[in-house]
Amino acid sequence: MEIEQITHLPPQMAALEKEAVAEGFRFLTRLISDWNSGATRFDAPGECLMAAYLSQQLVGIGGMSVDPFTPIRTGRLRHMYVTPTSRGQQVGRRLINALLAHASMHFESVRLYTDTFGGTAFYLRCGFARTEDAQATHIVQLRKL
């Protein structure tokens, strides 16, 4: 498996989006739209977009951005998706670890929002804690900068 930081949406992104939509997730559609319009490119300080590949096939994606709902030094995990056939193979965990390693150089904490039971269980297994906030369901503390 390979995890890499990307600066352009991969050619396989349409197929990944199709799988996400089939599961009822529209956030990859929003990612593509925002990317194409220039609204979100994960290019501000501390931000990044990473892709996961198995046998050169795109099987996951996730982004780290500045959290617009909190004070400075807080990142936001966004657009995290792993194909159903790749779940249970550590793809998501390795993608999260890579994103958090990047975030630790720029942020003191990372927050995210999920509205699924599976997402909640996954993020708890990855070290996030629940948080009571209208804009975030989970948070993880990183090192102090």
Number of strands: 7
Report the C-alpha radius of gyration, rounded.
14 Å
Percentage of helical residues? Answer: 25-40%
Proportion of strand residues: 25-35%
CATH class wording? Alpha Beta
**Low confidence ranges:** none
Straight-line N-to-C gap: 31 Å
Number of helices: 4
CATH topology: Aminopeptidase
How many domains is the backbone divided into?
1
Please provide the ordered H/E string of secondary-structure elements: EHHEEEHEHEE
CATH architecture: 3-Layer(aba) Sandwich
Q: Any idea what the CATH superfamily is called?
A: Gcn5-related N-acetyltransferase (GNAT)
* Structural class label: alpha+beta
Shape: globular
The chain-level mean pLDDT equals 96
Strand arrangement, major sheet: 1-2-3-4-5-7-6
Description:
This protein has 145 residues and is α+β, with helices and mostly antiparallel strands. It has one domain: 3-Layer(aba) Sandwich (Aminopeptidase), CATH 3.40.630.30. Helices cover 30% and strands 32% of the residues. The protein contains four helices and seven strands. It has a seven-stranded mixed sheet with strand order 1-2-3-4-5-7-6, sandwiched between helices. β4, α3 and β5 form a beta-alpha-beta unit. α1 runs antiparallel to α2. The longest helix is centred in the C-terminal third of the chain and has 13 residues. The radius of gyration is 14 Å and the shape is globular. The model has no long low-confidence stretch (mean pLDDT 96).
